[in-house]
Specification:
- There is one protein chain.
- With 648 residues, the protein is an alpha/beta fold.
- Helix content is 49%, strand content 14%.
- It has a 9-stranded mixed sheet, with helices on both faces. Strands 3-4-2-1-5-6-7 form a 7-stranded mixed sheet. The chain has a two-stranded parallel ribbon with strand order 14-17.
- α2 packs across α5.
- It is elongated, with a radius of gyration of 39 Å.
């Protein structure tokens, strides 16, 4: 059927010979005259429908219309390009015809009967109607078949991966789609050669050559996966074959999650996040909801990648009020609009403010009296903070110092600080600034537990590595470079990083915050490390490009403060287990609060006056495991191995 449509559309796309149109118009004109004659005979008697009168009528019609077409040349018009102006040509042909017929009748019968005059008017109307009708039908038919052929070309021919219920449900939903035409199913397990499911052939490809043959035989454009789990499972198998053979790997959402939405609108290309992400983390959702329900919760850095996701998840937990605190106006505006749309019943307050400004922070606490605080405000970009070390201290240390002290002052129940894996044995200013913030928060919490400082706040710190798709991170950067045609810049061919999705990290943060009852630093199981060079190559392939031909990778060297390999957060040597298999408690040195406060005050004061050398020396003295890498601050290192290096 599809080939037939192609053939018909192909025929219609060519110009019809004017001689064919000439003959067709002559036949239509004669039919119109015959119909008018029959009507005349029916009304006035058989004399008009037979014999000499009928012969003269029809012969004059044919001759007159032939002359009319030669004069007006309506048969030479390109039918598909007809306009309203062209209608006058056919009116002229029909009028010329009936005038000539009237003259013939006057000559033959010496007078014109009234009934014959009406028959000539009818002949004119019938002729014009048939000439225009056949052209309208031809234009409509042409447009129909051309649209069908265009739709077919735009409609992707796809193979569905898997024979499970999700795959079958997706096939049924796509059955009438004009965007995706499912022509077969790829089975994960060996199947009989003649097996059909949902009236579609089931293929079990044996190797790359067999798979390529299937693609060629069925003219396949894409392979559809019904879940991120399937796509990730096949990343070194079927997905790799698709990329090697330039077949688009697509993914569709869970059918149960569509809620009546059109399925093809939700089909998208497989993204690198789908391949790096892990199966959904199991969390104690009821316990988390109970912990936050009817509470006033404040999030600093609420417009950032982590902060905004925390706000989205908290919005669904029945909080009494959500206080958003951030100094970024446009991102804050965006998250505000999103929350208003998705959570119309949520009571929330967006506050533009900076954690470095004590009075503004005090206002937020004094006005809204939060019971739980998530402190996500931070500067995070390693090279930038290496070049602006004082600002790293002002935000990451002084900001945390300010928020933590306000938590004590206003009797906050719990403060959860978002930290980073770069705080472990830091090699850069950013990582060290976060470690100093950890030390201050931890020492303050322990001092409260020992009764050395008055307060009721429990301080919890959470550490994790890079999050997928966060603002300014490597994946959005690579994606932007690929869209521009490259080159894709990788620091070093051997550099590796740990990755976690933003929702995954936020769920673990809230889980840790829920079951923690004392001052602790929690670290998360980050899974396997990812080679950034491989990440870049896979993203290039997912974009449908060929490395070395369409786009290049350029190695630019490690940036100031960067490590080649990040620290593994969760090992038996540096952590203890918790009730959650993905969350661990870090074994770290405990600092006396008075000593920590004195050091933090000194470092903050040096940052205010931008006394960089003295500040960095003070940081290295306070955090002796801070050994700079690829940085101008290496000259301040003592190259001593600290006890905490082993402990962490």
């Amino acid at each position: 059927m599809e080939n037939l449509f192609d053939k018909i559309a192909g025929k219609l796309s060519t110009f019809l010979d004017s001689r064919v149109i000439f003959l067709l118009d002559t036949i239509l004109s004669t039919m119109a005259s015959l119909f008018a004659l029959l009507c005349l005979g029916y009304l006035r008697g058989t004399f008009y429908a037979s014999g000499r009168f009928a012969l003269i009528w029809l012969c004059s019609s044919i001759v007159a219309f032939t002359v009319a077409m030669i004069v007006f040349k309506g048969h030479k018009l390109i039918i598909r390009h007809m306009s309203l102006h062209d209608i006058f040509l056919f009116m002229g042909e029909a009028f010329f015809k009936v005038v000539a017929m009237m003259i013939v009748m006057l000559v033959a019968y010496r007078k014109m009967y009234v009934s014959v005059s009406f028959a000539l008017i009818a002949d004119f109307m019938f002729t014009l109607f048939l000439l225009l009708l056949i052209r309208l039908m031809m234009i409509t038919t042409y447009n129909y078949f051309v649209r069908r052929r265009q739709t077919k070309r735009l409609c992707k021919r796809v193979l569905m991966f898997g024979t499970g219920d999700k795959s079958i449900a997706a096939i049924m939903r796509l059955r009438n789609s004009t965007h995706y035409n499912v022509v077969g199913i790829l089975s994960e397990e060996p199947q009989p050669d003649d097996l059909k499911i949902a009236n579609l052939p089931v293929f079990n490809y044996k190797d790359v050559h067999h798979f390529e043959q299937i693609l060629n035989d069925y003219d396949i454009d894409a392979v559809l996966f019904t879940s991120e789990v399937d796509a990730k499972k096949e990343r070194d198998g079927l997905l790799k074959l698709c990329l090697d053979l330039h077949v688009s790997p697509l993914i569709i959402p869970n059918i149960d999650e569509l809620h009546g939405q059109i399925l093809h609108n939700n089909v998208r290309n497989v993204k690198i996040e789908d391949l790096l992400g892990r199966e959904e983390i199991q969390i104690s959702l009821d316990a988390i909801k109970a912990n936050f329900k009817d509470k006033v919760v404040m999030v600093t850095g609420a417009a950032g990648s982590i902060g905004s996701e925390l706000c989205r998840q908290l919005a669904s937990f029945g909080v009494k009020k959500l206080v958003l605190f951030d100094n970024a106006e446009t991102p804050m505006h965006n998250i505000r609009l999103e929350l208003e749309e998705k959570f119309p019943d949520l009571k929330f307050v967006p506050i533009i403010g900076d954690v470095r400004q004590g009075p503004r922070v005090d206002y937020a606490f004094r006005e809204h009296r939060p019971q739980i605080v998530f402190h996500a405000a931070a500067y995070k970009h390693v090279p930038l903070m290496e070049e602006n070390p004082c600002e790293a201290i002002r935000v990451n240390v002084h900001g945390t110092h300010t928020v933590a002290d306000k938590c004590i002052e206003y009797d906050v129940e719990k403060m959860v600080m978002i930290s980073t894996d770069k705080a472990v044995n830091p090699t850069n200013v950013m990582g060290c600034s976060k470690r100093i913030a950890e030390i201050y928060v931890q020492s303050l919490g322990l001092a409260i537990e020992r009764g050395e400082v008055k307060g009721k706040t429990t301080f919890v710190t959470t550490r994790f590595g890079n999050v997928l798709g966060s603002n300014g991170s490597v994946i959005p950067r690579f994606r932007e470079q690929i869209e521009k045609g490259g080159p894709v810049t990788v620091t070093d061919p051997n550099i590796t990083r740990f990755f976690m999705t933003i929702p995954e990290a936020c769920r673990l943060v809230m889980e840790a915050a829920t079951f923690s009852t004392s001052t602790q630093i929690f670290v998360f199981d980050m899974g396997e490390s990812v080679k950034i060079d491989d990440l870049a190559k896979r993203m290039i392939s997912l974009a449908g490009l060929k490395l070395g031909e369409d786009i290049q990778i350029e190695y630019v060297g490690l940036r100031p403060g960067e490590k080649l390999y990040e620290e593994v957060l969760s090992t038996k040597e540096n952590t203890t287990a918790t009730s959650h298999d993905r969350i661990f408690v870090a074994k770290v040195r405990e600092y006396d609060y008075k000593d920590a406060l004195a050091a933090v005050d000194d470092i903050e004061e040096l940052s205010i006056f931008v006394r960089i050398p003295e500040m960095v020396k003070k940081m290295k003295g306070f955090v002796p495991e801070f050994i700079s890498k690829n940085s101008i601050f290496e000259k301040f290192d003592h190259h001593e191995t600290s006890a905490e290096t082993t402990a962490e």
